[in-house]
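Workshop exercise sheet. Pairs work together: one partner reads the sequence aloud, the other fills in the structure field after running the prediction. Swap roles for the next sheet.
Pair: D.N. / O.F.
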Amino acid sequence: MPELPEVETTRRGIAPHLEGQRVSRVIVRDSRLRWPIPEDLDVRLSGQRIVQVDRRAKYLLIQAEVGTLISHLGMSGNLRLVEAGLPALKHEHVDIELESGLALRYTDPRRFGAMLWSLDPHNHELLIRLGPEPLTDLFDGERLYERSRGKSIAVKPFVMDNAVVVGVGNIYATEALFAAGIDPRREAGSVSRARYLKLAIEIKRILAYAIERGGTTLRDFIGGDGKPGYFQQELFAYGRGGQPCKVCGTTLREVKLGQRASVYCPKCQR
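Structure field:
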């Protein structure tokens, strides 16, 4: 599943080509995504100028003069720019054609993504209960410490909870916990304030660096500009179970936490 850096990479790739452009028409070839695409999306969006392309957690917000298209890439979705009128292939479900002659094309083989319309996106039911963005001043180690008190849940699924902080998915939680030296199995309530301060710093650092590197390409993700990400070449823990730790050489172990695979170093993380 594309994580926050991949979604931000997509946003940065498509925004310069969308912002200020007027939509000429919307072509929906298959509306059967996680939730059905609104039947009147073409009527609502066509003729409007796109004001801004923003992101909230893993949702892309394509803001028009009146209303906002909320898009989620799901498990296998991607958005890329093509020439308007380019014949569509299988799984290319939606084209948003622009007066510039380009079209924003949404592809999603598994159809777990979303394209929804809202006049008040930040109060939409999918967004209203989300926690703070990790790369803002609203998120820090103090928040992690305070929210974790009394919790017996393992620290990794705790930091992956979107009510605590958004966008820290499996890949980046694994990497941040490795960098902070925290065993992902440790109870969230047992982690000290000092270690949460370190973890928050590492979450911010790793996410920012992954965005700079274009995200992490695993399986299906392709950025909005057609370029894959390269951060996967620098992973220390994620997907490396059974391999030697890049820091100490100890064999990395893999366990299941919250139904997700989690890799850690038994020597570097405690």
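Discussion prompt: Residues 4-118 form a domain with the N-terminal domain of MutM-like DNA repair proteins fold (CATH 3.20.190.10). What would you look at next?
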